Structure formats: C-alpha cells, structure tokens
Amino acid sequence: MIVQRVVLNSRPGKNGVPVAENFRMETVTLPDKITDGQVRARTLYLSVDPYMRCRMNEDTGSDYLLPWQLSEVVDGGGIGIVEESKQANLAEGDIVTSFNWPWQTKIILDGRLLQKLNPQFVDGHLSYFLGAAGITGLTSFLGIKEKGHVTPGANQTMVVSGAAGACGSLAGQIGRLEGCSRVVGICGTDEKCSILVSEMGFDAAINYKKGNVSEQLHELCPAGVDVYFDNVGGDISDAVINQMNQNSHIILCGQISQYNKDVPYPPPLPPAIEEIQKARNITRERFLVLNYMDKQEASILQLCHWIKEGKLKIKETVVKGLENIGEAFQSMMTGGNIGKQIVLISE
C-alpha cells in the first residue's frame, strides 16, 4: 500500500526561523497485512504546535521531548479512523488518537499506543480532541488550576499573552469561568483583538504591535495584574510583570518569542524584572501538563461540558492537505492562526 508522508528535510539551526522547506513530502510503501496487536488507520487530522520547534533541533533542550531525525517521518498529535485492527480493544470504524501520530496519510501502529475517542464528547467535532478537548485544553485548564491560584470573588485580574492562539484563547475563557473578574488579552492584530472581545468574552485586548503595551496595560488593568498566563516570554512578559501585584502568579505555558533562540527553558528574566519578581513574591514556575495526567480524565470531561454548554468558544484555523503541513507550521509560528492550527488530511 502506497502512502504519502512528511519527513524532516533540514534543521533551521538553533537560532534559525523554521520554514516550510524544512519539511519534505515523499511516498512510502506500507505492508499490506498487519500483525497481531497492530492497527491500520487513515489519518483525519494532524496538529502543529509551538513546542515542535524544539523537536527540530538536534537537542530539544528538554528531557521529555525527543528530536525529530533528518529524513525520518515527523510525528505529533493526530487523529484517525481505524480501517483494520488486530488489537483486542479497537475495531474498524473506531476514532483513535496519539501524541506521536506519524505525519502520513495512513499509518500502521501498535494498538497500545492509540487511545480510543468518543465523538459524542465533542458533538462530532473530532479536531477538538487536538485542541480544546485535548492537550491544549488540558494545558490551559490545569495551568490555571494548578499554578494560577484563582479564587472566585477575589476580584482578580488575569492577563493572557499570545491570547488569540490555541492555549491563550482558551486560557482567558477558563480564567473567567474559574472566577477572575477581569481578563485582558495581548495579541498581534486588530482582528484578533476584536475576536477576543466580541466572541471569546475577554474584557479588553491589546495589539502589541500598536502603541505602548505598558501604558495600555496600566489603563486596562487599573488594579494591577494578579494572574499572568504567559505564552510568549520576552519584552511583552517584562511589561506585564512590571504591573503585577504582590503575591501574584505567572503560569508559564510557553515562550514562543524565545523558541528560535538558544536559551534555557524557561528563559531567564532580565535583572531588573527578576528584581521585581522577587520583591513582589511573584511565583513563576515551569508548568508541564504531563506531570498532571492523573487529573486528565476529569479535566477533559469538564472542558467537554463547557464546550457543549457553549461556555467555551472554540476557534480553529484549518489548512487542508498533508502537502501544506510545512506552511501551516511556519504560519502558526509567526501568528498566522487564530485559535488552534489544524491540518485536515482526509474527511
């Protein structure tokens, strides 16, 4: 059986910016027969995410992420439909997912590596399992639960950077649902700002490419900032930390502004900002969702419940075709997406 796949063609270099040409499409032959325990599935959706930038380096800089190998198939979050199964728990027609789904039109995998999904949880919107009802939603939800210290009725202000991205657009809404009284987003276009306020329930949004971020924060967060969901790092984060209150909390989700630079994770703060962090006793701990997998099931149920009730609004940017996955990745890394960046491989 001939299938198409995407391999890592070249590395951007530790401080380089990824481009679509770092990936290459090729054809490969899969065995016609599967063996005991294996499953053959047709790929429906693949996810491209900022953390993948680290996997493009020879050394990911992290103990839980393995680097992609040159000329080897790339993998990440994926969803597919089972076409044939020799694994007891999975049958033809089942919808399955994996964190390490090869970027191929069809796959043969050990069935134990696949998790069966219930499409009813997301009213048939299967791609949500790669976003709001998957690892993205878990990161936003558990980040706020475990590191945000949100207390209903405490009149807290939350700021979210990268607010129109996959995690950010959910984090602001979850912050509100968990009890924050004011939520302000920071993103990179007027269109994104408008969507955050009109559709996602943010109180206000700042376009960091226009005007002075510090001044706008001062105006929009008159009582200071109590919780900061940090997706970007860099200058934007420095501006937010400057306006954070005593005993406030930073949720370190990602540092996309730093991903193309060879710095440790989380990147160190400039001395003046670190001084503020220490003086005001601001917590800034690395958050790793994989450390909270015992809470995964209950958290996913809560997220799905909010989605069904219409309390959690979902935005996706969908690109069609495996051949366009390199462009989709490049676009997502430069803010071309609103909400979760998804690649549709087959209907």
Automatic annotation (TrEMBL):
Chief location category: cytoplasm
GO molecular function: 15-oxoprostaglandin 13-reductase [NAD(P)+] activity
UniProt enzyme class: oxidoreductase
Keyword terms, alphabetized: Cytoplasm, Lipid metabolism, NADP, Oxidoreductase
Domain of life of the source: Eukaryota
A GO cellular-component term linked to this record: cytoplasm
Annotated catalysed reactions: 13,14-dihydro-15-oxo-prostaglandin E1 + NADP(+) = 15-oxoprostaglandin E1 + NADPH + H(+); 13,14-dihydro-15-oxo-prostaglandin E2 + NADP(+) = 15-oxoprostaglandin E2 + NADPH + H(+); 13,14-dihydro-15-oxo-PGF2alpha + NADP(+) = 15-oxoprostaglandin F2alpha + NADPH + H(+); 13,14-dihydro-15-oxo-prostaglandin F1alpha + NADP(+) = 15-oxoprostaglandin F1alpha + NADPH + H(+)
Pfam families cross-referenced by the UniProt entry: ADH_N_2, ADH_zinc_N
Protein's cellular compartments: Cytoplasm
Domain Alcohol dehydrogenase-like C-terminal span(s) in chain numbering: 168-259
E.C. number: 1.3.1.48
Domain Oxidoreductase N-terminal: 5-116
GO biological process, one term: prostaglandin metabolic process
Subunit structure: Monomer.
Protein role: Functions as 15-oxo-prostaglandin 13-reductase and acts on 15-keto-PGE1, 15-keto-PGE2, 15-keto-PGE1-alpha and 15-keto-PGE2-alpha with highest activity towards 15-keto-PGE2. Overexpression represses transcriptional activity of PPARG and inhibits adipocyte differentiation.
Similarity field: Belongs to the NADP-dependent oxidoreductase L4BD family.
Protein name per UniProt: Prostaglandin reductase 2
Source organism per UniProt: Pelodiscus sinensis (Chinese softshell turtle)
Name of the coding gene: PTGR2
